[in-house]
Amino acid sequence: MGGLAFRLLLLPFLAPVATTAVNPALRALASLNLQIFPTFQPEEANNYSIYYFDQKIDHFGFYNTKTFKQRYLISDKYWKTYDGVILFYTGNEGDITWFSNHTGFMWDVAEKLKALLVFAEHRYYGESLPFGEDSFKDSKHLNFLTSEQALADFAELIRHLKRTVPGADGQPVIAIGGSYGGVLAAWFRMKYPHLVVGALAASAPIWQFEELTPCGVFMKIVTEDFKKGGTKCSESILRSWGAINRLSNTGSGLPWLTRAFHLCSNLNSEDIQRLKDWLSETWVNLAMVNYPYPANFLKPLPSWPVKTCTEIILPFCTNGVDDMFEARSWDLDKYSDDCYKQWGVRPRPSWVTTLYGGKDIRSHSNIIFSNGDLDPWSGGGVTEDLSDTLVAVNIPDGAHHLDLRPSTETDPPSLQLARSVELRHMKQWVSDFYGNYRKQP
Questions:
Q1: Which among 361, 363, 360, 368 has a CA at the least distance from the CA of 429?
Q2: Which of 102, 122, 364, 400 is catalytic?
Q3: 400 among known catalytic residues
Q4: So what's the pLDDT on residue 438?
Q5: Which residue among 225, 284, 362, 430 has its CA within the 20 to 30 Å range from the CA of 437?
Q6: DSSP 3-state helix, strand, coil percentages of the chain (rounded to 5)?
Q7: Which of 75, 100, 179, 378 is catalytic?
Q8: Segment 221-238 mean pLDDT
Q9: Mean pLDDT, rounded, of the chain
């Protein structure tokens, strides 16, 4: 909610308000009291060593020869140099230590795969800042925040590990990531197949781009999630937009909204759309983290990383009929104008599909695409097998990359099955690698 003059207190983000003059739908929203609970994570999740690697700021030019220190984490507790594997987490939009502590799947399977765990931080996040405090200063400094540069970082880091870590040179590498990190894991296997034998791309919306997926699918899935909790829930949310609009036009309505949503300063009419945008994002986040146990997964997680508005262009739209949101069409021209006003750049909506192939990815191999049916990002994900080695693993009642989270006693059978399928494929990739590797003279 950039530019909003007041700050919203997220949790608990709504408080009961006694009033008879307010639409019942809005009163229902104001009575919610959401809580955050401790998350589950394996005991070994903090058992890693921290390293830094000098990365080129620009991998694709020859003029800028400057470097920055990319942070990465390593755990070798269960690693076997003779027949092990390197599980390489393709870091996404946040501090890499946080992703390490919440990607329990890697820690859970480390012993079974005799794996060396590597968590690589994405440039421009955590401590991996190409220009230090000036990294987000302007479009000139943000020019190197692209998926291509991030993938090249991972490639150079793997080459560095192979050269410098005894025993790593003759081992297979598997890329693993979730959400944007899952997209990067899939793209990494596509672009650097000589460096990774396969990829697990969890909740990776690689088709949520330029006309590959209808723009309304995402919000429709969010709405279906709320309908499963009770039809009146989604209906109340749909009616709330009109209630907010009507209240914003009354003398007492704006103060009521200010109190109801625990705002730090008084609302004015210009803030209403941003308030509704924030509420929409809240419903989306709740749908994404609809896990079968309490968790605080999204609390510290920022939004998608490429805010220079250059290549990660995700079309979204709503119609208020198939979903519980106000009708809003996708307007690329407005999006482009907003990006130019804020950053001085124009988006390239066709670049991602040009670079990574859109839906025509059947020439690639050894990628697992996992998706939870409750996850709105599944609408832009791969949910059907494309070949024997481009495999879709669908998790009924699964939320956003639930399979990458630590295993718990409350895991449903469908989740346990999904993880077993993923592990089986990964073991096969490792077996195939050593079978071919040891046949070579």
A1: 368
A2: 400
A3: yes
A4: 66
A5: 362
A6: 40, 15, 50
A7: 179
A8: 83
A9: 84
